[in-house]
Amino acid sequence: MNCYPLPPLLRLPAASFLLLFFLHSVRTQIVTGADGIYSASFPYFDINDDGTDLRLLDADINGRVIQLTPNSRNVPQNFMINKSGRAFLNRPFTLWQLNSSSTSNDTAKRIASFNTTFKIQVLHGNDTIPGEGLSFLLSSHLESAPPGSYGGFLGLTNDTLNGNPDNHFVAIEFDTVRQAYLGDPDDNHVGLDINGVISRNTSSLNFSIASTTAVNHTVWIDYDGAARYLRVYMVVGDDPKPNYTVLETAIDLSIYLEQTFYFGFAASTGITYQVNRLLAWNLTVATFPEGKKRMSAWKIGAIAGGVFVAVVLALGAGLWAWLLARRKMERDASANSSSALLLETLKSLPGTPREFEFKDLYKATNSFDEKLKLGKGGFGEVYRGVLPGENKQVAVKRFSRGATSAPHDFLKELIIINRLRHRHLVPLVGWCHTNNVLLLVYEYMPNGSLDHHLFEGPSGKPTTTLSWERRYNVIAGVASALHYLHNEYEQTVVHRDLKASNIMLDANFNARLGDFGLARALETDKTSYAEQEMPGVPGTMGYVAPECFHTGKATRESDVFGFGAVVLEVVCGRRPRSDIDGFHFLCDWVWKLYREGRILEAVDPRLEEDYDPEDARRLLLLALACSHPIPSERPKMELSVQIISRAMAPPVVPHFKPAFMWPAAPAVVESSSRSTTMSVGTSSREASSMESTLRPFDRV
Ligand SMILES: *[C@@H]1O[C@H](CO)[C@@H](O)[C@H](O)[C@H]1NC(C)=O
Ligand SMILES: *[C@@H]1O[C@H](CO)[C@@H](O)[C@H](O)[C@H]1NC(C)=O
Ligand SMILES: *[C@@H]1O[C@H](CO)[C@@H](O)[C@H](O)[C@H]1NC(C)=O
Ligand SMILES: *[C@@H]1O[C@H](CO)[C@@H](O)[C@H](O)[C@H]1NC(C)=O
Ligand SMILES: *[C@@H]1O[C@H](CO)[C@@H](O)[C@H](O)[C@H]1NC(C)=O
Ligand SMILES: *[C@@H]1O[C@H](CO)[C@@H](O)[C@H](O)[C@H]1NC(C)=O
Ligand SMILES: *[C@@H]1O[C@H](CO)[C@@H](O)[C@H](O)[C@H]1NC(C)=O
Ligand SMILES: *[C@@H]1O[C@H](CO)[C@@H](O)[C@H](O)[C@H]1NC(C)=O
Ligand SMILES: *[C@@H]1O[C@H](CO)[C@@H](O)[C@H](O)[C@H]1NC(C)=O
Ligand SMILES: *[C@@H]1O[C@H](CO)[C@@H](O)[C@H](O)[C@H]1NC(C)=O
Ligand SMILES: *[C@@H]1O[C@H](CO)[C@@H](O)[C@H](O)[C@H]1NC(C)=O
Question: I want to staple 402 with a disulfide (CB 3.0 to 4.6 A). Which of 307, 344, 511, 522 is the partner?
Answer without folding.
Answer: 522
